[in-house]
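Loading example: each entry is read as two labelled lines plus one structure line.
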Amino acid sequence: MNNLKYYLGRVEQLFADECFLAEPRELYEPIDYTLRLGGKRIRPTLLLAANALFGGREEEVLGAALGIETFHNFTLLHDDLMDRSPLRRGQPTVYRKWDENTAVLSGDTMFALAWRYFLRQPSPRLRDILNCFNETAIEVCEGQQKDMNFERRGLGRVSLDDYLDMIRQKTAVLLAGALKVGALYAGAPEAQVDLLYAFGLHLGLAFQMQDDLLDGYGDTAVFGKKTGQDIRDNKISYLPLTALTLADEPQREELLSLFATKDTPDEEAKVRRVMALYDAVGLRPVVEQNIAREFQSARQTLDRIAADEALKAPLRELMETLDGRKK
Amino acid sequence: MNNLKYYLGRVEQLFADECFLAEPRELYEPIDYTLRLGGKRIRPTLLLAANALFGGREEEVLGAALGIETFHNFTLLHDDLMDRSPLRRGQPTVYRKWDENTAVLSGDTMFALAWRYFLRQPSPRLRDILNCFNETAIEVCEGQQKDMNFERRGLGRVSLDDYLDMIRQKTAVLLAGALKVGALYAGAPEAQVDLLYAFGLHLGLAFQMQDDLLDGYGDTAVFGKKTGQDIRDNKISYLPLTALTLADEPQREELLSLFATKDTPDEEAKVRRVMALYDAVGLRPVVEQNIAREFQSARQTLDRIAADEALKAPLRELMETLDGRKK
């Protein structure tokens, strides 16, 4: 029986062994750079563990594991371009290190490379597997568009439900899809595949809500980056949207006005003011409770899956790591 | 037996019947706009005709026909963004009509939609078909990167062979790939698939070389756009590269210097001067001969394909239309 550490190590090895460089260099160097920047590698880890859960053979899903992470990194590369983010995992983003055209084309190529990895391994369920991957990809694009629409609409015109629907598409379906692909390769029964997918959705929602929480309440020393960046960027996240549901009218108006201010002369004062409002409405415990509830739903869904408890252990371990994470 | 007109009409109908609009609108409206702009629809037409050549069933390749054209239009959408082209088929390009982020994300989604169409139809050879499509996609990206590299390198440092390799990847492999996919769906023997692929490469090279010729020597009234745009853009094409092989040293130096000039005050004088140089080196008949030779290779390859002559007729007709085209 493999534990979480085994799967994380296997995924690291997989990326270390793979060559991403080819001709023309101008196209592949940014791809190699992106895929070697690291990250948590959550999606391929979920895929391998889900496959093992139903007795799959690891060597049959290594292509899909590479593919799902390559796809994920493609979306980050294009998102960073669209969001004009200067840094990713502490390093310059591709459009900054190279240029915008490189970001567009190297990203496109990564999407195709993800397909190459997915197509590496035959399977009697290949069409189902590829459909799952592709419908996931489409949802991720739709989620990103909704996220961009929110920024244009402004905080006051986005509901918490809109937001949860957006992060489901932008983040959660890819975790769910990774699990489903792993299970499909193993020939898991449909009902089990569906439960695993549901587990992934809960896990993904909890993960993103916690990401939003850490941006406001992370311990800078552990978090590794400055907190409050979402506030500086007027980014619509789970925090201000939940705060609005708790605020009285004057608090609501102040929050909306703070999130509508661009180019504030004193950004740190703005961050402090928003955080004070969050505290005043009692935001933190409410958000922590909601995140805990989502993790609890994930846990209960995993409990219902008909598989060997020892094989579920790595998924449980990953979930508990994410639940307790400080960065 | 269907003729070319039948296939062109079938493809038009296919696009007319398809709904490209979905939520969020901001994502799908540019996709609908792009896919309804028209164009020659050469790739899906080749795919349908190649399928019929080996007794395939038309309804089985309609998804692939939609997919190959959706992919092609995705590459045009991203190319227009990267090349900063204001117009496509006489209409504003997506990044101009909307914005750059829309062009990035709607393009990404079109790539995924192309996959959705490709996955619509099961086939015992699905993995081969999808591999063919995907390896083609990767080559198209590599070709586009090489094209962008050329612009940076400058005319004097690109050889005719480099150029032919680039247009093979950027243009020819997609025509060849469309034919191959059609033939694979029909279960054609490998040797025939290879011949059809080779036919597509010759056709694609001839097509692009002629495109380059028309930019310089097209009849504006028929061509539908101003000639000489490649010269104004210092675009490295088959014309200046072939001219360099025919020029003496002073002519070579003048041509290189003209193609290195940016923001010329009198662009039309520059176009006239380059065209005069082309005439002086006797460019036009040489290029026309080379294009004719490439079409002849396509013709001879088609001749060698073991299929009913009546079924080859639409491919022949399409080839002769392209050979004689004035726009």
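The interface with chain A takes residues 23-24, 26-27, 78, 81-82, 100-101, 104-105, 107-109, 111-113, 115-116, 119, 122, 126-127, 130-131, 134-135, 137-138, 141-142, 144-146, 148-149 of chain B (CB under 8 Å).
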